[in-house]
Amino acid sequence: MHVTIEENHSHPRLPDLLAAYHLLNEAEKGTPVTTVAGLPAAYRAEVEDPAAAFAADTVLLATPPGEDLPAGCVVLKAPDDGQAPEIKRLWVAPAARRKGIARALLTEALRRAAASRAAAVRLTVWNWREEPLALYRRLGFEPVASWDERPDLVCLEKPLDVVERLTPDAVRAHASGGLAALLVDAVVGGASVGFLAPLETAEAAAWWAGAADGAEEGVRDVWAAHGPDGQLTGAVTLVRAGAANGRHRGEIARLLVHRAARGRGLGYRLLATAEAHAAATGLTLLVLDTRTGSPAERLYRGAGWTAAGTIPDFAADPTGVPRATTLFYKRLG
Predict the structure, then answer these.
(1) 3-class DSSP state for residue 13?
(2) Largest Cα–Cα distance in the chain?
(3) DSSP letters for 182-224
(4) Which of 52, 180, 254, 286 has its CA 20 to 30 A from that of 27?
(5) What domains lie within the chain, and their CATH numbers?
(6) Structure confidence by residue, pLDDT tens digits, 111-156
(7) What is the DSSP letter of 79?
């Protein structure tokens, strides 16, 4: 399923989404109201004029495939007094739930926060909301000291890995260090990324040196993620088709997340970053392949990619055993 995410403070559907959020919120808090007019003034103002209420913030809406109107929203509040940006008003219409919309909204909000070079993102959630709590924890949010003393409110924060596009020189600078370590870690972890075990650092570094040459030639883009300590935690590359009749498409290659950094949504953010750049530079179709049944396959399906088919015994895993490969594609725009 491909969820369309857009930024829009003034979408005519946004007031309805915010109203549904606030009305349920008041009911769960034990102060139910039946209409927007009965909401507290601050919440009523958001519903009546979201463009004004969130003028300094990022408002994202999500539209399911085949639909004309958004079914979900989230607000990424601008940083205040040096604090981390805060995620607010995450809402998905009941009929559209369990389709990955909340994760897609959160992933895009996290990507944008990281692009602003924020060190972390925070949020609050009522302790009785078990499903949202579980989702936040899967994405790497952890409980922190409360900044809001309302009873039953849980304060969570997530340190952000910064995702940056690397210049060819930067790829070369990291080739024998962090980038090689990511590739070696992937092979040790059993990922089928084109190499057999054991993968020596020198061989991994040589592959990245070739990727740097491709970046210099304009046929490959490289992004890397690093944590607050500067250590590389993930990488992804986008390869542009060279044939004249294929210049509208690209291939996602070597999506890598270090095993110590998994479970925080970084793979989704790296993939979303490459997809956004591909669309912004005129590509309309992306392809990739991955080992059938792998965690990576589940990631791509969750990110809206479509399986085109499976080839048995297409590539060997790091131990040399032939494994099936699933081919995926995703249309952009």
Answers:
(1) coil
(2) 66
(3) HHHHHHHTT--SS-PSSPPHHHHHHHHHHHHHHHHHTSEEEEE
(4) 52
(5) 4-159 (3.40.630.30), 162-331 (3.40.630.30)
(6) 888 878 788 899 999 999 999 999 999 888 999 999 998 999 999 9
(7) P
Question: Phi/psi zone of residue 284: left (φ > 0), alpha (ψ -120 to 50 degrees), beta?
Answer: alpha
Structure tokens belonging to residue 169: 């020189």
Q: In what order do the strands lie in the sheet with 4-7?
A: 4-7, 58-63, 72-77, 86-92, 120-126, 153-159, 142-143
Place of tokens 């085949």: 66
Do residues 159 and 122 make contact, with C-beta atoms less than 8 angstroms apart? no
Give Cα separations from 310 to 1, 13, 98, 196 (angstroms).
18, 40, 26, 21
**Residue 247, pLDDT above cutoff 70:** yes
**What value, to the nearest 5°, has the Cα angle with vertex 279 and ends 112 and 4?**
65
DSSP-assigned states of every residue in 103-166: HHHHHHHHHHHHHTT-SEEEEEEETT-HHHHHHHHHTT-EE---S---TTEEEEEEE-PEEEEP
